[in-house]
Amino acid sequence: MVTPFTSDGSLDLDGARRLADHLVGEGRCDGLVLNGTTGESPTTTDEEKSALVRAVVEAVGDRARITAGVGSADTRGTVALARAAEAAGAHGVLVVTPYYSRPPQEDVAEHFRTVADAVGVPVMLYDIPGRTGTRIEPDTMLRLAEHPRIAGVKDCAYDLLGSAKVIAATGLAYYSGCEELNLPLRAVGAVGCVSTVANVAGPAVAAALDAYDRGANAEATRLHQRTLPLVELMMAAGLPGTVTAKALLNALGLPSGPVRAPLRAASPDRTKALLEAYESTRSSPSGGTSWGHPQR
């Protein structure tokens, strides 16, 4: 979930409550991840992160699981963030691999174990070597799966074979963190996705996975393919997903507000293209439309 801000860049807790309620209801999200990359965690304070968790937990109650991003390059700092998120009401925490320092694998494993030992809620590992510079290697995943509170993985490793091997050998709940791999990972045993695109097109993202779960593989493929133009424009066309998601949410009249520097808003031309791609995902198989209407 994006982190809504007011026009002056302050945290918009009322907007966060309204957006969370919308995503869980019309957006068909059965869980929300707060304070992740799309939530602009690098530019929000620890106090803002806790306030956001409290506000969203208050808004959605027991209708959705709330997972709070708590990752940092510092183990002590990550432990402090994880404890604060648990105290604020998060049902679980998302912990990214320590970045920049590029620790060896046993140090990576000890980082995750230390955080998991410090809290009483489930831990989701976040494997995204393209951003952190360090992979959580499959053998490391197998060792970490033995910890009673390490329960899941947000997978952005782009290694389908490695992910499939870990899924087959462990009870870890795998979630695709790369929109184009939502369906392929589901086919090898992932349980869902942590999606930036679902900020604006949750019903379309869910529809492809629902079709697969019904055994309607051809329909699942068609629905997955229908999201790809929007996925490409939002995630692989030169702008961060935070920027594109907020551009669309603002255009749709949903709580969002500006991005914080160093990010900058999408141009009007890019927003127009995003809206056109978004519209192509809205038609339901029966000819109706899903939620969200652009402001004219």
Automatic annotation (TrEMBL):
Family matches, as SMART domains: DHDPS
A molecular function (GO) term: 4-hydroxy-tetrahydrodipicolinate synthase activity
Active site: Y126 (proton donor/acceptor), K154 (schiff-base intermediate with substrate)
Part of a proton relay during catalysis (site feature) positions: T37, Y100
Pfam families the UniProt entry points to: DHDPS
UniProt pathway annotation: Amino-acid biosynthesis; L-lysine biosynthesis via DAP pathway; (S)-tetrahydrodipicolinate from L-aspartate: step 3/4
One of the GO biological process terms: lysine biosynthetic process via diaminopimelate
Residues that, per the record, bind pyruvate: T38, V194
Classification via Gene3D superfamilies: Aldolase class I
Segments crossing the lipid bilayer: none
GO cellular component: cytosol
Subcellular location: Cytoplasm
UniProt-annotated stretches for the region Disordered: 277-296
Enzyme Commission code(s) on record: 4.3.3.7
Keywords: Amino-acid biosynthesis, Cytoplasm, Diaminopimelate biosynthesis, Lyase, Lysine biosynthesis, Schiff base
Swiss-Prot/TrEMBL catalytic activity: L-aspartate 4-semialdehyde + pyruvate = (2S,4S)-4-hydroxy-2,3,4,5-tetrahydrodipicolinate + H2O + H(+)
Chief location category: cytoplasm
Function: Catalyzes the condensation of (S)-aspartate-beta-semialdehyde [(S)-ASA] and pyruvate to 4-hydroxy-tetrahydrodipicolinate (HTPA).
Oligomeric and partner information: Homotetramer; dimer of dimers.
Family: Belongs to the DapA family.
NCBIfam families per UniProt: dapA
Record protein name field: 4-hydroxy-tetrahydrodipicolinate synthase
Organism in which the protein naturally occurs: Streptomyces eurocidicus
